[in-house]
Specification:
The complex is a heterodimer of chains A (320) and B (173). With 320 residues, chain A is of the alpha/beta class. Helix content of chain A is 26%, strand content 32%. With 173 residues, chain B is an all-alpha fold. The chains are: A alpha/beta (320), B mainly alpha (173).
C-alpha cells in the first residue's frame, strides 16, 4: 500500500514520506494546499509533517507545500494525462491505483452554465482507501430473513462508514456467509459505483475485495447503471451508494419490481430525516426498504446505532 | 600504371554513384519515417478520442504495434513517464528525442514532433485532439511536398552521383 500511495506524490514529498515511519493503516487523509503546511489525519487526529520528527502538532516547523509540488503531484496523479480524467475532474475527484480517492479544487472553467473543467489545481485532498473486512458481521443477521436478503438502506452522515459497511456487506453476500450454523449461499451482486467509492476501481478493476460473484459498473450514473445491470447481468442483489435523485428512486422501484434485492446508502442522521427527503421519503412510506441501518461516528467510525424494519420497529439499538 | 589508374577510377566511380544512391535512399527513409509518424499520431488520436487512455499507456500500446525506427523513441517515453522521476512531460519528451537519431527525419520534422510534445498531457481532450490534428496536417503537408518533388530529387541524386564519378574519371584519365 505504501509504495502504491507514494507513487502519486512529487519526488520531494515522496522522499519526505518514505523517511517517516508510521503505520499506513492508521493514515486516513493527506491534505495538500498551496503555500500552506502539509496536513495529515492519522488515527483520527490532525498532524503537521516535519522533515526531522515526522508527525507533529507544531505548525512552525511544518513542511510547506509549494505550487511546484502540487503541479508535479497532479501530473503523477493524472499519469501526465489530465485529459483522460476529464469527467472526474469535472466532478472534483478521481481514483488512483490502490483505490485512494483524490479530491481536487482550483479554478473552475464554466461552459454554458456547466462545469467544463478545472485548472490551476491548488488544493488536493487524498482520502486513503481502507477496507474493513468483517465490519458487516453483526449487521448481516438483521438483514438476512430466512432465505432472502431484505431491501436495506444504510443511513449516516458523511464520514461515518456507510460505504465501508456497504462494501463489506457486498463482499460477504457475494462470497456467501455462515452464521448460527446456517449457510447462506453467495448471491450474484451488481454494484453501480457512480463515484468509484465502493469498488475503488482503477482501470475498470476493483481495488477492494467485493467478493467472487460481484460485477461492478464503474463511474456510471446510478439510475442508468441499475437498468443496464438488470438487463445485462441478471443480478440477485443490486448495490448503490448515496441515492437521492428522483431517477435513482424510480430505478430502485424498477429494480425491486424485477425481483432484485437492494442495498443502498443515503446521507442522513436518523429515520425522520430520511422520511422528510423528497422522493426517497416516498420509498419509506411505501415500505419498500425492509431494513434501515443507522450509523454514527460516536467513539469510533462506523458504529451501528440502530436498526429498524419497514414498519419502524426497532430491531437493534446501541444508544446509551 | 594504367591498371592502377583504372582501378582508382572504378573505385571513384563506384563511391560517388554510391553516395548518390545513398542520398536517394535516405530520402525514401525520410518518407517512411514521416509515414510512421503519421500512423503514430493517428493511433494516439484514437487512443485519446475513443478510449481516453493515459499517455504512458497509450504510447506503450502504440510502441508495441510499431516496428519502425520510431519504436525506441515511443517505448523510451512510455518507460520514463511510468518512472515518475520528477521530470515534466516536456523534459522527458525532449530527452527521448535523441532516440530519433536512428531515423532519417530532418530538423524541421523533429521540430514538429517537439511541438506536439509541448502540448501533450495537459488540458482537456479537445485540446489534445486539436494538437494532434495540427501535427498530422504538418506531417501530411511535408509528405505531399516530398511526393511531388520526390521522383525528380531521387533521380537527381542518383544521376549527380554517377555524373560526378564520370567527371572525375575523365579528369584523372
Amino acid at each position: 500500500m505504501k509504495e502504491e500511495l507514494l507513487k502519486i506524490f512529487s519526488v520531494k514529498l515522496r522522499t519526505l514520506f518514505s523517511g517517516l515511519s508510521f503505520d499506513y493503516e492508521k493514515l486516513q487523509e493527506i491534505r495538500l494546499r498551496v503555500n500552506a503546511p502539509l496536513l495529515v489525519c492519522y488515527d483520527n487526529k490532525e498532524f503537521f509533517v516535519n522533515q526531522k520528527n515526522g508527525l507533529t502538532t507544531q505548525e512552525t516547523s511544518a513542511f510547506m507545500i509549494t505550487g511546484a509540488e502540487l503541479k508535479e503531484t497532479m501530473e503523477y496523479i493524472s499519469n501526465y494525462s489530465l485529459y483522460a480524467f476529464e469527467e472526474e475532474v469535472r466532478q472534483g475527484f478521481l481514483t488512483v491505483a490502490g483505490g485512494h480517492r483524490i479530491g481536487i479544487a482550483g479554478k473552475v472553467i464554466m461552459e454554458e452554465g456547466r462545469i467544463k473543467s478545472m485548472k490551476h489545481i491548488s488544493f488536493i485532498h487524498i482520502r486513503l482507501a481502507h477496507q474493513k473486512k468483517g465490519c458487516a458481521n453483526h449487521v448481516l443477521p438483521f438483514v438476512l430473513n430466512q432465505e432472502e436478503l431484505a431491501h436495506t438502506l444504510i443511513i449516516s452522515p458523511p464520514g461515518c462508514g456507510k460505504t465501508t459497511l456497504l462494501r463489506d456487506m457486498i463482499r460477504q453476500l457475494s462470497n456467501g456467509v455462515v452464521f448460527c450454523g446456517k449457510r447462506y449461499e453467495g448471491m450474484q451482486v451488481a454494484v453501480v459505483d457512480e463515484r468509484s467509492e465502493i469498488g475503488a476501481c482503477y482501470m475498470g478493476r476493483p481495488q477492494n475485495d467485493l467478493g467472487i460473484r460481484t460485477d461492478v459498473l464503474d463511474c456510471c450514473p446510478k439510475a442508468q447503471g441499475m437498468m443496464l445491470m438488470i438487463r445485462s447481468m441478471t443480478p440477485q442483489v443490486i448495490a448503490v451508494d448515496e441515492i437521492g435523485l428522483a431517477e435513482d428512486v424510480e430505478a430502485i422501484h424498477y429494480a425491486a419490481n424485477c425481483g432484485c434485492r437492494l442495498l443502498a446508502t443515503v446521507h442522513g442522521r436518523n429515520m425522520d430525516e430520511v422520511k422528510g427527503k423528497p422522493f426517497l421519503g416516498d420509498l419509506v412510506k411505501y415500505k419498500l426498504f425492509e431494513r434501515y441501518i443507522i450509523l454514527s461516528n460516536r467513539d469510533y467510525v462506523g458504529r451501528v446505532e440502530e436498526i429498524f424494519d419497514e414498519r419502524g420497529s426497532l430491531l437493534y439499538s446501541d444508544k446509551t | 600504371m594504367f591498371i592502377m589508374k583504372l582501378v582508382g577510377c572504378i573505385l571513384i566511380f563506384c563511391s560517388t554513384s554510391g553516395i548518390g544512391f545513398l542520398y536517394a535512399k535516405e530520402f525514401e527513409h525520410r518518407q517512411e519515417d514521416l509515414n510512421s509518424l503519421k500512423t503514430m499520431a493517428l493511433q494516439l488520436r484514437g487512443e485519446i478520442r475513443y478510449a481516453m487512455t493515459a499517455l504512458p499507456e497509450a504510447l506503450e500500446h502504440i510502441a508495441k504495434r510499431h516496428d519502425g525506427r520510431l519504436q525506441p523513441f515511443l517505448s523510451e517515453i512510455s518507460k520514463k513517464l511510468s518512472e515518475r522521476s520528477g521530470e515534466s512531460m516536456l523534459q522527458i519528451w525532449s530527452a527521448c528525442e535523441e532516440k530519433l537519431s536512428v531515423t532519417s527525419l530532418t530538423k524541421q520534422d523533429k521540430l514538429f514532433l517537439h511541438q506536439l510534445g509541448e502540448s501533450l498531457g495537459y488540458l482537456d481532450k479537445e485540446m489534445q485532439l486539436a494538437t494532434i490534428d495540427l501535427f498530422l496536417t504538418q506531417v501530411e503537408q511535408t509528405l505531399k511536398e516530398l511526393e511531388t518533388i520526390g521522383k525528380e530529387k531521387k533521380r537527381l541524386y542518383k544521376s549527380l552521383g554517377i555524373l560526378t564519378g564520370i567527371f572525375l574519371v575523365i579528369i584523372i584519365l
